[in-house]
Amino acid sequence: MPVLVASDLDRTLIYSAAALALTMPDARAPRLLCVEVHESRPLSFMTETAAGLLTELGDAAVFVPTTTRTRTQYQRINLPGPPPKYAICANGGHLMVDGVSDLDWHTQVTARLAEQCAPLDEVRDHLLATADPAWVRKHRVAEDLFAYLVVERELLPEDWVKELAVWAENRGWTVSLQGRKIYAVPKPLTKSAAMREVAHRTGADLTLAAGDSLLDADLLLAADRGWRPGHGELADDDWTAPAITALPERGVLAGEQILRELLKEARIQAPQGRGELRDQPQPTRTRQRTRP
């Protein structure tokens, strides 16, 4: 039985220049590999050591990139190692198989959203009406599934994010603040549902996961074991749960350590297997804090 590894990408395995968090002296900084170019400019990086670990992981397990990015944004990334057969895009809205979206899966997802959530147009209109142009740089709709804003983080009123989260909660949506982006995503649109589908198709009976944001929490809880870095929404909230390891590393070195942990566990557990995907337990917290 194969081991399935579903990992978030941005600020988990790959990092923009602003998110690298290189705090050591320049002469001791790790060598970096550019894994994404956009408009002829380098955009995302991982350490060369992480690139080697990811190549090994691709040989040892079914590696599934799992991202909130759109399909177009995901396809800009050139990860080292064997090309993944499966990828999860748009927070689970698209299940990519050999680079092509699975139409049956996408149809199931859109039907579920129509049943359970307020329509996208209502959420988009609310964002347009309430967000202040003084701190909003861009309004975006992703894959006709969810919406997000790109903001000037230092000008963003904290109360506005909290109020948006309450408004969205009452309409079956969730809000996530990640760097300079504020996401409004339908609650049934989850990475975990898509991971379960890939596990079913591959026959995997052990699932490992990694992620840093609120939108990764369901993925981590659904896996047999999960890891989060020392930065991001989940770390800011001291979020933890059974079978979740909170790593102290931050920035691009956290991505390197996450890959070490995933590879080690995949190699140890691959011959054994550990049963079905777990039901999602309720997370515990080491301190209370109001989430935006």
Automatic annotation (TrEMBL):
Instruction: Classify the source by domain of life.
Output: Bacteria
Q: Where is this region: Disordered?
A: 269-292
The name on file for this protein is HAD family hydrolase
Name the Gene Ontology molecular function terms of this record. Answer: hydrolase activity
Q: Keyword set for this entry? A: Hydrolase
Q: Which SUPFAM superfamilies match?
A: HAD-like
